[in-house]
């Protein structure tokens, strides 16, 4: 009997190999959560030091970190159950990084933040691959949310 040739795609990899990759991806996302919590702590410090001309923007940015902590935590906990979330956070981090590179090194905050965001987008992209984040779209297709809205 002829046996089909099997490759090492996600469909044919052993369950232990997939679990290990998934675990590594989740650990990477946990690191991203911790790094974002550190940014939040820095934001609180900046809020305390901010004058009246900067308090609103520092507060807005600091509370934004809380939102990203939550988004990253959701991806770490349920990496294949959040359609579009991986792409949304990667797109944001990539856009901010590209803009920071475009601004150049003359703006100190931008130079530092760009380096940090490049690390974050790299970690998120690697976690997306390891956790097979693209599979979250199958949850979307299975649920057919547009059809549910119409009925």
> Please, what is the average pLDDT?
88
Determine the N-to-C terminus distance. 50 Å
Portion of residues in helices? Answer: over 70%
Number of strands: 0
**How large is the share of residues in beta strands?**
under 5%
**N to C succession of SSEs:** HHHHHH
Q: What is the gyration radius calculated from CA atoms?
A: 19 Å
Count the domains. 1
- Low-pLDDT parts are 1-8
Principal-axes shape call: globular
Query: Count the helices. How many?
Result: 6
- Helix-and-strand structural type: mainly alpha
Oligomer: single chain
Largest sheet: none
Mind explaining what this structure looks like?
The structure is a single chain. With 151 residues, this protein is an all-alpha fold. The N terminus is likely disordered. The chain has six helices and no strands. The protein has one domain. The radius of gyration is 19 Å and the shape is globular.
């Amino acid at each position: 009997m002829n046996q089909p040739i099997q490759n090492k795609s996600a469909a044919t990899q052993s369950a232990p190999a997939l679990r290990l990759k998934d675990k590594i991806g989740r650990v990477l996302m946990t690191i991203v959560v911790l790094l974002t919590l550190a940014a939040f702590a820095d934001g609180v410090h900046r809020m305390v030091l901010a004058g009246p001309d900067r308090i609103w923007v520092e507060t807005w940015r600091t509370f934004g970190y809380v939102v990203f902590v939550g988004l990253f935590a959701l991806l770490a906990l349920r990496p294949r159950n959040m359609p579009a979330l991986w792409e949304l956070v990667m797109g944001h981090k990539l856009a901010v990084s590209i803009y920071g590179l475009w601004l150049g090194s003359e703006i100190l905050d931008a130079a530092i933040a760009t380096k940090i965001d490049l690390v974050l987008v790299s970690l998120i992209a690697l976690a997306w691959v390891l956790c097979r984040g693209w599979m979250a779209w199958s949850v979307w297709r299975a649920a057919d949310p547009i059809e549910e809205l119409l009925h």
